[in-house]
Amino acid sequence: MSKIIGITIGDPSGIGPEVVIKSLKYFLEREKKLTFILFGDRYVFEKNQSLTGIYFKVNFIKGKDDIKEGAVNFLDLGIIKGEYPVGKVSRLCGEASFLYVEKGLEFAKKKIIDSLITAPVSKKAWNLAGYNFSGHTEMLSYYTKKDVCMVMVSGNLRAIPVTEHIPLSKIPSVLTSELIEKKVKIGLKFLKRLGIEKPVIGIACLNPHCGEDGTIGDEEKKIILPAVEKLKRENIDCFGPFSSDKIFREWIDGKYDIVVGMYHDQIMIPLKTFYFSKLINFTEGLPFPRVSPGHGTGFDISYKNIADPNPMIEAIKFCERLL
Predict the structure, then answer these.
(1) Beta-strand (E) ranges in 181-221?
(2) Distance of alpha carbon 300 from alpha carbon 247, whole angstroms
(3) Do the beta carbons of residue 157 and residue 278 sit within 8 Å?
(4) Which of 11, 159, 179, 221 is most buried, judging by how many CB atoms fall within 10 Å of its CB?
(5) What is the pLDDT of residues 13-28, one digit of tens each?
């Protein structure tokens, strides 16, 4: 059996099922065939086939023994069997999307699939359904008991947020030198996965103008710089902290193999503004590759057949590259 890519279809109310179907059409038209297992609800999948007008042969399975090589296999969880809310947060779709990921994780742990791609979910919907995780990264870390980090990738541009899905107001109390060091070292594993043996790492600051020597905040002096200096003593080639406008310009110019930002939106703003169509999210530190497109549920454009499948296509290509 060839390597198998598992894909969860995401929140049924959002654009996840649509971009999954559009992406699979792209891969099914290639000469080289991949083997997929989709985790979702048949009703939702077929509703989105009708929406997109894209139909292809699907092998519905109940377990490992039913998998067909080179085909789109589908495990129907049977959660949603009739009409459901679209274009908005709901407990039902939160329940369904969480259980899709849970089933995908089960298959990954059992090594039935070789990698897992997750279409977007709503954190609010998960919470309404009683699953108190702030996203895929935190959920997968919890269930695998692994230290992980989010790596955002668009072509040769790569970035890591030290803190992830937390309010801005909490960042100063969460940010530590030890956390920065841990994220950098997990990020190094990712770069080595890509064959980059001697990476150059840029470290961003937290405050405007790098805190202006403590006059606009002292996290640079007390937290970030000590982490950079310690990493250097361990022969890790890193530089900083630098202000965002400087470091991202140099990053685009190819000076760094990866940039480490202090918070989620610090790295997301340049990536999503200028590199959206190729943006993916890779979770480094898991026992299997996990990738997702670098966008959200898109409730405002769901069920209009206008969602861009390119980030999902890039996610599948990235998994294919690693397998």
Answers:
(1) 201-204
(2) 33
(3) no
(4) 11
(5) 999 999 999 999 999 9
State residue 32's pLDDT score.
Answer: 84
Joined together, the tokens standing for residue 297 give 């549920």
Other Cβ atoms less than 10 A from the Cβ of 150: the count is: 25
Q: How far is CA 178 from the centre of its chain?
A: 24
Tabulate helix, strand, coil % of the chain (nearest 5).
45, 20, 35
Are 312 and 23 spatial neighbours (Cβ–Cβ below 8 Å)? Answer: yes
Look at residue 31 in the predicted model and tell me its pLDDT: 80
- pLDDT at site 82: 97
Copy the structure tokens of residue 206: 């937290």
Domain boundaries, the chain: 1-147+286-323, 156-274
C-beta separation of 91 from 126 below 8 A = no
Q: Do the domains spanning 1-147+286-323 and 156-274 agree at the CATH topology level?
A: yes
3.40.50.300, 3.10.150.10, 3.40.50.720, 3.40.718.10: CATH of 1-147+286-323:
3.40.718.10
Let me know the angle formed at the C-alpha of 148 by 319 and 15, rounded to the nearest 5 degrees.
50
Please check whether the domain covering 156-274 is classified as CATH 3.40.718.10. Answer: yes
Q: Are 194 and 157 in contact (CB under 8 A)?
A: no
Type of residue found at 156: N
What is the amino acid identity at position 224?
I
DSSP letter string over 210-275?
GGGTBBTBSHIIIIIHHHHHHHHHTT--EEEEE-HHHHHHHHHTTS-SEEEESSHHHHHHHHHHHS
Ranges of residues in the chain with a pLDDT under 70 are none
Q: What count of other Cβ atoms lies within 10 Å of the Cβ of residue 306?
A: 10
Would you give the DSSP letter of residue 280? E
pLDDT of residue 106: 98
